[in-house]
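Q: Predict the assembly, please.
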Amino acid sequence: MIEPYTTLMDRYKDLYLLGSTGSILAWDMETKMPPKGIALRSEQLALLQKTLHHMLTDPENGRLIKQAADHPDLTPLQRRNLHLANKEYQEATCLPEELVVDTARQTALTIDAWKKAKAAKDYPAFRPYLEKIYELKLRAGELLMEPKGSDTPHDALIDVSDPGVTAHQLTRLFDEMKSGLIPLIRKCVDSDSQPDTGFLKRKIPIDTQRKITDALAQAIGYDITSPQAGGRIDETEHPFTTGYYDDVRVTTHYHEDKFDSNIFAILHEGGHALYEQNLPREWIYQPVGTACSSGLHESQSRFIENIVGRSPEFWTSFYPKLREITGDALADVTPELFVHAVNLVKPSKIRIEADELTYGLHIIIRFEIERDLFAGKTTVDELPQIWNDKYASYLGVEIEDDSEGVMQDTHWAGGAFGTFQSYALGNIYGGMMLEKLNADLPDWRSQLSKGSLNEVKAWLKENVHRRGNLYDAPELIKKITGKTLTVTPFIEYLETKYSKFYSL
Amino acid sequence: MIEPYTTLMDRYKDLYLLGSTGSILAWDMETKMPPKGIALRSEQLALLQKTLHHMLTDPENGRLIKQAADHPDLTPLQRRNLHLANKEYQEATCLPEELVVDTARQTALTIDAWKKAKAAKDYPAFRPYLEKIYELKLRAGELLMEPKGSDTPHDALIDVSDPGVTAHQLTRLFDEMKSGLIPLIRKCVDSDSQPDTGFLKRKIPIDTQRKITDALAQAIGYDITSPQAGGRIDETEHPFTTGYYDDVRVTTHYHEDKFDSNIFAILHEGGHALYEQNLPREWIYQPVGTACSSGLHESQSRFIENIVGRSPEFWTSFYPKLREITGDALADVTPELFVHAVNLVKPSKIRIEADELTYGLHIIIRFEIERDLFAGKTTVDELPQIWNDKYASYLGVEIEDDSEGVMQDTHWAGGAFGTFQSYALGNIYGGMMLEKLNADLPDWRSQLSKGSLNEVKAWLKENVHRRGNLYDAPELIKKITGKTLTVTPFIEYLETKYSKFYSL
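A: Predicted assembly structure:
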């Protein structure tokens, strides 16, 4: 029995219990709460946040972490728990309360200004607010540098979402990614083999779409119906996943004339949910019993959404079911046309509408802008021009006003600097996992075309999910694949896949 | 500014926020939670309970209450808040932790023994467990006597649910009630005017019943659909109401061949919900901003369920809607027959299946047994015989085994001594309110038959709901009616109503 260690873990149990309580309240707010309840709910959530912060920043935690770390007999798992606890403690305590309060206030103001400026297509009205929130996050990054051992404020912020990853690494990876993506996108766009996607706008009643949801959940083994179910699916405007271990819930959205939107929302969120549900049971309530990073989480959602869910093999098995559920609606659409249509490559202005191939460029643009901003190579004033230039250069699209340009996302207004990289990292991690999966289970695609995802899921569980937060993502990827981070497998996967669709 | 008072009220705000957080988690557990989530949920709720208890029993609260009470300039409302805070503080702190822990453990054991003994119809197997939980509650009652100023342990326990009410008073009231109910029930049973109730077993599909639910919610003004709605209706095996101010939720249950079960569940729980929603907004997060007592709460649910919801006038307006929703199912059932059928008087063994008239006797039997047990006039060993004798004498029914007798309810097994009286008090309070309503709004029944419940609801809001917890129930009733507690109005209401149905 290591006294300070077990005391600390007992405290962490309470933290996870209260944190997961907050998740349920937040989920309820989005899905079930009577509209009038919003003021009360805000107060309940604020109290939970305050209490959690109080528990997390208790100086006793700092003492316990230090005392526990001195013990000579710690197992590697215990050391990892202490490392993660310390990381969280440092992140929560190294910022002076004044900065935290100022940031919270400025975030609200900047988001409000962003909404108005976006509606008015008026970047100059937004700029001073964005500058203020940027200055505050820069200051936070500066203060986080020392406890994190980061070289720059930007690295320190990136390390919060994606521990062990730096802007320098990202630049190398994203340059590699760009040089793979840009020519491939160009070839797809220029190809004569363009799919007719008009049928994706056919009206499919919401009740019918709900049946598609149930069938998809069953197809990927996200259990929402059995007496042992640990999940459920509800509706919100923006789909999300939330929960902890045996209670992990996803949401989706239904648009009568965009039935594919629900399909890929379910597959994406289902990928997140399977990760959370498969975390090792014996690590519940411990820091190691959590997902490894934002980027790793995104690798799991994209693996199920794209690598599995947009593959011809998945639709070989699932398309007959989809046709059965939708009656005559897709009677004239061949499986081949369907799969090509949901893999249409079409450069666009809006990130959240981007396809698998162009998506990464949207992320890289944001990362590069952030990086240069934090490095002092550009100013908040110059962002619209830089944004528009990059969109023209990388994606070949012309931004007509800043509402569909630099002001399209809420992230920076909300102070979320150092977070966008996770989306593209998810693709890179996923590509590397796929390469290893191909080696370990050469017939996984043929199994998938017969309707079985079991071995793929077992592989993800064994290699990714069951390792929880035992390693930072780059180290985890090395454990899984034996390789350091590389974009090559992702690009190769895309080239193979899209060469077929577009007869390249 | 009265410093200790405002500090105390700030603490109370956190208590109500955390308490209402627990309510949402408990609601979610019953209605939405994936089944696998139960272990995690139990831990979340246990932590909230522990935290709430810790906040409530903090000795600083006791000091603040004392300091605040010394201030000469307190308003009556502030004095009431201090009185209620002190009551809660005393109830939470006067029991030694050992007793609390023993009681929690014994409750779990006794409920488990009750389930098994009930299934096996084996009271002797249950008896020792019941004795233990009774001894623990007796000890709690003894310890609560002093802070509550109660004369007996039983009175102290009653005072927790129904402050200001004693066993002595209840004996007087319930004797009066018995002598009114027993002959009236006999006359109804002996009458030749018996309704045919067979149509109540006709199958009404659940989806149709959901439409009845929505129409009933609209009829009583329990808003579940508008953008300002503060309520919602979900499904559970046992209907209940939970929530706080702007987020008050009810549940119902659907049985295809008992469609009236849902109807009266909605009306009953709707009555509870309207009370909670109408508490004075300016008293939110204060002790006065809560319902007055269990008995008073029950008066509101029964007012809407029985006095309104089983009245001929309500069905004059609502029956056409019911027929419209149910298609041909009730085409041959006259409104008169329908109303009589849902007011069938039929003595039975099981409390939760009892009608409006016989229900009170089920409660009185339990109260009398409890009272004599706590007074040492009877023993746990003798309960089955006493139970069966009283059922034969008051209700004229013969209990064949203890599973349908003394072991039918879970309450005593769960240690809920001193709580049954609330149900019958609810009827008494409701009768007195009705008498005053008749005087204040002589044409409320004719309004109701035209489909308007507005003035009745406004009356209840003004006289009951908006007074929150400003007075103990007997004092509140005096404020409303000018009278001390009396059963006469309730019995007169029943005699008038049932004389018509049964041509007495």
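The CA atoms of residues 2 and 362 of chain B lie 48 Å apart. Chain B has two domains: 3-149, 168-502.
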